[in-house]
Amino acid sequence: MESRTTTAGVKLPDDLERLLAASHNDPFAYLGPHRETRDGVSGVVVRAFLPQAREAEVIPADANAIRMVRAHESGLFEAFCPQVADTFPYQLRLKLRNGSEQVIEDPYRFLPVLSDFDLYLIGEGTHLELHRKLGAHLHRVDGVSGVVFAVWAPNAKSLSVIGDFNDWDGRRHPMRHRGGSGVWELFVPDLGEYCIYKYEVRSNHPPFLSQQKADPCGFYAEMRPKSGSVVFNIDRYQWNDHNWMEKRSTKNLLDQPMSVYEVHLGSWRRDPEEGNRFLTYGELAAQLIPYVKEMGYTHIELLPIMEHPFDGSWGYQTLGYFAPTSRFGTPEEFMYFVDQCHQQDIGVILDWVPAHFPKDGHGLRHFDGTALYEHDDPRQGVHPDWDTLIFNYGRHEVRGFLLSNALFWLDKYHADSLRVDAVASMLYLDYSRLPGQWIPNRYGGNENLEAIEFLKRFNELAHEQPGAFTAAEESTAWPGVSRPVYLGGLGFSFKWNMGWMHDMLQYMEKDPIHRKYHHNNLTFVMLYAFHENFILPLSHDEVVHGKRALLSKMPGDYAQKFANLRLLYGYMYAQPGKKLLFMGGEFGQWNEWNADSGLDWNLLDFDSHSKLRRFVQDLNYLYRSQPALYEQDFNPSGFEWIDFHDWSSSLICFLRRARNPHDFVVFACNFTPVVRENYRVGVPEEGYYRELLNSNSEIYGGDNLGNGGGIMAESIPWHDRPYSVNLTLPPLSITVLKKE
């Protein structure tokens, strides 16, 4: 055996030297049982590195204990066991330095757990249940309980599991390298749930530095600022949402009502009596879910709940891709939250971030000493806006990691949907880059071909889950974002309509006297409204970083601000497309969203705010009760202009139709603070038109101007319609009519 000289002048075997340096890449070749012949006697040498022990013995299952010899002062022990099989069950009995005794299993006597087929699929990037193989799993091997650790790090020199159980000593539990797969594996007996661990990864390049890394596939993590991974059993929760899961698989959400309440769990509500602490998943289930149901929403969308180190990223700089954040509780408690949503007929949408990840040292960055998950070249690998790292979608294992992660949330946590953040940054190689700061694709273009293929495959797989859907936050004119892959699209179910959000907020912020010069902001959306399956969002991004809260954006005096906001919400619900509103908008926060504190719930003590919330609640119930408002969101026959030419008065009228053409709803919108009396609006049929909603109603904080609850159509042709109604349109209002 090759030997080297240490700085103390003592010659060590190469294996021991590497073991002491925590740089051994094949510990099973040295530790554990090995066949040898000594003095003509065949037997097995059991070798164990036990720096915590003063003395040690091997205890075979069916023989007397055999004393181990201290082969090196560092804690290397050996015992020669004559006339035994190559592999035989045994334990190690230790006398510890503190005088106590301990009987342990030897990790280095067990065979590998991962199959060659698993390793092949991992390397191919097609293992779609990666979470079942990589990470930390409670397991029994040969009747012995423990934890199997497995991690992908193909370019590491060596890799060890470290934790409280071995005093964070990387020499104690070096892992087995599973060949060309790049996977390292170790079964550690006697470990149980809630064990805290990391991986000590030593680089294969000079100066061979080691890093302590959290588990990329870990199911649970310590509360920040700590960063250890935690062993957790995610398979024991008993779900009670069978009715929901079965029902959702029979629905086509394209023709169903979908009103989304966007929530940041850390700041929806805090507990001021206990130091402004976060609410737990259980407390959120008890408070948030009934509120959402009472308000009439159909879905909750959660800003990323995957583990993240920095509160200020709101979850969009994810590190623990397989771990719901410990800020609010355990993985099981998050399952309970989702389960309770479903039992109350509330769908759950999770924001998911496969576009980039942060540079924190315990995370994915240079995981094995090389650019493993990311690109090495900063022109491809670093996001200039967020100073984060971009996934290498062209690498099979990275693509498999992300695809498996997406399916993990849909499967293990029963998520109904994943909304993919920052899709535009994935599609374009030159996104937010100047010339010379990006590398063209193989055809010389700016499209990220690998990311495009990844998104298509993601959507194909996600839609194989019964009833699941996907949504894209995509801010460009990329065609076919929400068209099927087989038709050349990216395959998303829905796309956020960022253009509509921008145009509408720009319009609503203007003083009404100037709105007539920007009438196209109201009407332009109908030129492209049916090119995609749109969600109309008023999201968190519009109420932070100096953009002001929605209510604060509105012009006019106190009452006019509320009237404008009611008009904006009413117009959103009237337009084709699904709906999304960020928390706090429903009752009119004055202040920008602050992720470090709860919403200003005290505002509900004031009439104007409580009445605004009542208006949003009634909008949701009206929306859900009228098929004309959702059945044909993505069909041009579901929308008809009545009149959009009255730009000088900032008035527009239109109708929405259900699949039944006689089921329609008429909308008249007055975007000025002037009462419009005797305003005639053409309608398609005769009869009595009941006023379903008037945003100027006193119950919403208005002046109660309107049409007395309804009006009879007259046989006076108007707006190219055979009949018409003569309306009073209150200032800054939306009036909703339906023929009885």
Characterization of this structure:
The protein has 740 residues and is α+β, with helices and mostly antiparallel strands. α4 runs parallel beside α5 (331-343) and α7 (396-412) runs parallel beside α9 (449-462). The longest helix has 19 residues, at 607-625. The termini are far apart. Mean pLDDT is 94; it is low at 1-10.
CATH class of the domain at 116-230: Mainly Beta
Quick one: CATH superfamily of the domain at 116-230?
A: Immunoglobulins
List low-pLDDT spans.
1-10
Helix content: 10-25%
Q: Tell me which CATH architecture of the domain at 116-230 applies here.
A: Sandwich
DSSP strand content: 25-35%
Q: What Rg, in angstroms, do the CA atoms define?
A: 32 Å
Identify the strand order in the major beta sheet.
Answer: 19-22-25-29-30-31-32-33
By DSSP, the count of extended strands is: 41
Query: Helix tally?
Result: 15
What is the structural class?
Answer: alpha+beta
Q: What is the residue-averaged pLDDT?
A: 94
Keywords:
Immunoglobulin-like, 15 helices, 740 residues, disordered N terminus, eight-stranded parallel beta barrel, 41 strands, alpha+beta, 28% strand
List the helices and strands and how they pair.
Blueprint: E1 3-5, E2 11-13, H1 14-20, E3 32-38, E4 41-49, E5 53-60, E6 66-67, E7 69-72, E8 76-82, E9 90-96, E10 101-105, H2 116-124, E11 135-141, E12 144-152, E13 156-163, E14 176-177, E15 183-189, E16 196-203, E17 210-213, E18 229-230, H3 242-248, E19 259-263, E20 270-271, E21 277-278, H4 281-295, E22 299-302, E23 306-307, E24 320-324, H5 331-343, E25 347-352, E26 356-357, H6 378-381, E27 382-383, E28 388-390, H7 396-412, E29 417-420, H8 423-427, H9 449-462, E30 469-472, E31 494-496, H10 498-508, H11 512-515, H12 520-523, E32 534-538, H13 550-553, H14 558-574, E33 578-582, H15 607-625, E34 639-643, E35 651-657, E36 664-670, E37 676-683, E38 688-694, E39 710-712, E40 723-729, E41 733-739
Parallel strand pairs: 19-22, 19-33, 22-25, 25-29, 29-30, 30-31, 31-32, 32-33
Antiparallel strand pairs: 1-2, 3-4, 4-8, 5-6, 5-9, 7-8, 9-10, 11-12, 12-15, 13-16, 14-15, 16-17, 16-18, 20-21, 23-24, 26-28, 27-28, 34-35, 35-36, 36-41, 37-40, 38-39, 38-41
Helix pairs in contact: 4-5, 7-9, 14-15
